[in-house]
Amino acid sequence: MGNFFEDFFMGQEIVHPLPRTISEGDVSLYIAFTGSRFALHSSDIVAKELGYEKRPIDDILMFHLTFGKSVQDISLNAIANLGYAEIRFPTSVYVGDTVSMSSTVIGLKENSNGKSGVVYVHSIGKNQRDEEVLNFKRWVMVHKRDTQTLSKISEIPSFKEATPILEKINIPKIDEVNTDATGGKFFFEDYEVGERLNHPEGITIDNSDHTLATKLYQNNAKVHFNDHMMKSSPMGQRLMYGGIIISIARAISFNGLQNAQWVYAINSGAHCNPTYAGDTIYAYTEILEKLEHSREDIGLLRLRTIAVKNQASSEIEQPKDEEGKYLKNVVLDLDYTVIIPKKKTGK
Amino acid sequence: MGNFFEDFFMGQEIVHPLPRTISEGDVSLYIAFTGSRFALHSSDIVAKELGYEKRPIDDILMFHLTFGKSVQDISLNAIANLGYAEIRFPTSVYVGDTVSMSSTVIGLKENSNGKSGVVYVHSIGKNQRDEEVLNFKRWVMVHKRDTQTLSKISEIPSFKEATPILEKINIPKIDEVNTDATGGKFFFEDYEVGERLNHPEGITIDNSDHTLATKLYQNNAKVHFNDHMMKSSPMGQRLMYGGIIISIARAISFNGLQNAQWVYAINSGAHCNPTYAGDTIYAYTEILEKLEHSREDIGLLRLRTIAVKNQASSEIEQPKDEEGKYLKNVVLDLDYTVIIPKKKTGK
Amino acid sequence: MGNFFEDFFMGQEIVHPLPRTISEGDVSLYIAFTGSRFALHSSDIVAKELGYEKRPIDDILMFHLTFGKSVQDISLNAIANLGYAEIRFPTSVYVGDTVSMSSTVIGLKENSNGKSGVVYVHSIGKNQRDEEVLNFKRWVMVHKRDTQTLSKISEIPSFKEATPILEKINIPKIDEVNTDATGGKFFFEDYEVGERLNHPEGITIDNSDHTLATKLYQNNAKVHFNDHMMKSSPMGQRLMYGGIIISIARAISFNGLQNAQWVYAINSGAHCNPTYAGDTIYAYTEILEKLEHSREDIGLLRLRTIAVKNQASSEIEQPKDEEGKYLKNVVLDLDYTVIIPKKKTGK
């Protein structure tokens, strides 16, 4: 039934149950849910041209399948999923791999009202060879069991503003990118800091789409599935899992970022407003930073993708109003870093 | 267009067409439809720890894929699917296996009005090596072609109240259950006859969910797919395939029965009330019986799972009212037997 | 953002990006979308009995996965998809194969109003061994960029009324068809020219069904996904991808054509009226022609399948009214050719 604030302690290690074997079915369903077209993940030919034996799993799909495991222990009864930071995807995952996850409690802060507290965890996902495939921190607000006794615990960890870029990047050396296959002509050198890409597509999400996806990820947070319960909540209906919006925004960003086929890191993200069945998601992307790496074949782009509901992304100038509050149609503010080959690799 | 009562005769053998190869796509879709989290079926690591080479197919998914084959010959135009009994799952099925089915007519009873009759069949599903993977009996009421001539046939077979437990149970010997992986700490010894588990989750089913599932099973009973036809029926809309509810109830029962990963038998079941798109399914389970087996590593639990629509299962005390009639929100009364390891296997 | 009329020139060769590896997930999803029951595509046992190593991909699924690639370059901003012709499926495709596509411009006709023009292309799909798997022609009306300057170009190619039947047909020699497995007793000799089959089934399509399918095919034509945009169009809602209707009609035609498991060609097709979520699709088929082939084990049937929405197909006598206009419920008029074994192969 989910853990309370008192069930956590500093340094606690939690092995999340339910290791998950990833299958071809998951990959196809992910394409069906998102319409994603990044060639590396849907074409063995492109994957081989890029130095892989076969197509790896989309990083965001892997995130959902792995992350879903931690919901039961960490956030099943969360009052709020407050944030995440320093998300990294250290190693590619393939069909047939089995991912599992564990977390360490790295921070605890009791709220002054005595009713709840914030739990900070560092979660690590591994494959069946014990290699790290996912690494991130997140914090959630949970209820206290005993609202009378105050522990006054307040150990708050600090987070890096952006996920550090490691010396070693685990993707094959890229000799040549076949732009006839990837569908895009732009490489690292073609982007400028401050540039904005208005992705033209909009995708409408229905109830079956998002509930099938969230069930596939075995993410059992009730708010996403149980319409009967949600009807008597202030929302009045099922809330879409935030990961759905990340996936759709990433899929839409294909248009303009076709060769940025690797998500290196997610630095931070805000689910600014809720999304419900019937909403149409649009997105635009700003280039925040261009990062050189010791590898000569690739560079990294730090991006900010803003997802908007029921309004073309080109109509949104800034995601926040003058008081710094997110506009009511803005549903995602995602700061992340992608890997993109350099121009000389283009064919 | 489906068979009439006169098309059946005692001892008749019917080979149902359309053997079905089971794929990774079927497995992923089943998880997406139900949110099922039984580790044996979604993790090769857990399957190997339990003595398997790889994860077997969920027994209920296999049931749907195999059962679907008999609809065309037996129940396409059934007036009512009256019941089933003695369902057994003798051998595990894996991705790549091909299942097929045949039936023998074991009973025929003409109704006194001369308009219809009841057909009883014994159906057997086999894999590509001719090994039995499914074995059950069921009975359906079908129309007569000729309502004027009376045959007065009345050969009614008898059914066992519960599927017999065989001496040989075809699952690997279980040495150790990794409860960090399966997500549950409870074993055979931890359950008591009469105990009741209120599973907390509720899952809402939409039209695409249930029609995609039923089409995947190639179950072509019209009432599930054809909204145009159903709009002029007393139901006014598509009726959900009863198997959907069995699957959802089984998936929800994970919470409390995490280590009961094998369905040994279904003893009987009643689809007490119809379910439609938009309904939210809840469930609770009673422990009816604890059955020892000559194998020392496992025991069997006979369970009764009651599924309820649009009402938390904890709010239902008894599924029937004082007159023995099912409450209007009760949608499934399932009597089945699961295999669960004994305590000494726990880690 | 899609090409304009001026972006095309005679003889132009266009390599469509995004080669697509076909997976078991795609196959299962296709069955879930359509309920298709042709045994060759869902059973390895039947495939082996018919001389295959394993089950090949349904021809129409392969068409959608391959065709989807050309949308971005050819028809993303099409005013209208005017027609297609001479569609052939030269070689079977299997799970694990990667399909890609290229097109040659074979015709250009500027419209007299100067605002638009028609582009004719010849498109060829290949597998990873460079073998042709799909070959077709189609024409679309696209906007001109410059509506002031007239090119007066008018090079219109001619199309054959029916896709020619080649001497070599790339399917294994058929020794025996196990009708207990395929579910149908009828062979080439059993059909008569002029005969009409009223397929009894009707399948209702919901929004998630058709959008999941179209996204799976990575067909990114906006009209199918973006409800927000479509609400301000005359249609007022998302338009279903025409390929969905072809697939449903083909799946429904199983009933009566169980042994016609190969689509040899599509000669022409008209999407007579739009279909939207909630519509129920019915279909009937006329036998237009019986074609002998030098191979003695098979013959070909040229068929006309008419799909109808929200009305039983048996209620439609002719798809067009007296003035030659399609009735408002008729949604597809498909002229295609299937391969069917001859009677002596039946068992």
Summarize the structure.
Chain A is of the alpha+beta class and 347 residues long. The first copy, chain A, is built from nine helices and eleven strands. The longest helix of chain A is centred in the N-terminal third of the chain and has 11 residues, at 24-34.
Question: Which labels suit this protein?
Answer:
homotrimer, alpha+beta, Thiol Ester Dehydrase, Chain A, 2 domains, eleven-stranded antiparallel beta sheet, globular, Thiol_ester_hydratase_Rv0216 (chains A, B, C), lyase activity (chains A, B, C), MC_hydratase (chains A, B, C), HotDog_dom_sf (chains A, B, C)
Please, could you describe this protein's structure?
The structure is a homotrimer of 347-residue chains. Chain A has 347 residues and is α+β, with helices and mostly antiparallel strands. In chain A, strands 1, 2, 3, 4, 5, 6, 7, 8, 9, 10 and 11 form an 11-stranded antiparallel sheet that branches. The model of chain A has no long low-confidence stretch (mean pLDDT 95). Chain A is globular and about 65 Å long. The first copy, chain A, has 2 domains: 7-22 and 57-145, Hotdog Thioesterase (Thiol Ester Dehydrase, Chain A, Roll); 166-347, Hotdog Thioesterase (Thiol Ester Dehydrase, Chain A, Roll). In chain A, strand 3 and strand 4 (116-126) form a beta hairpin. The first copy, chain A, has 9 helices and 11 strands. Chain A has helices spanning 24-34, 39-42, 44-49, 59-67, 71-75, 179-182, 207-216, 227-231, 242-252; strands at 13-21, 80-88, 98-110, 116-126, 132-143, 154-155, 196-204, 262-270, 280-292, 298-309, 330-341. Chain B binds chain C through residues 1, 15, 17-21, 23-26, 28-29, 72, 95-96, 98, 100, 128, 206-208, 211-216, 218, 220, 222, 225-229, 238, and chain C through 23-29, 31-35, 37, 39, 42-46, 55, 179-184, 200-204, 206-209, 212, 258, 278, 280, 310-311.
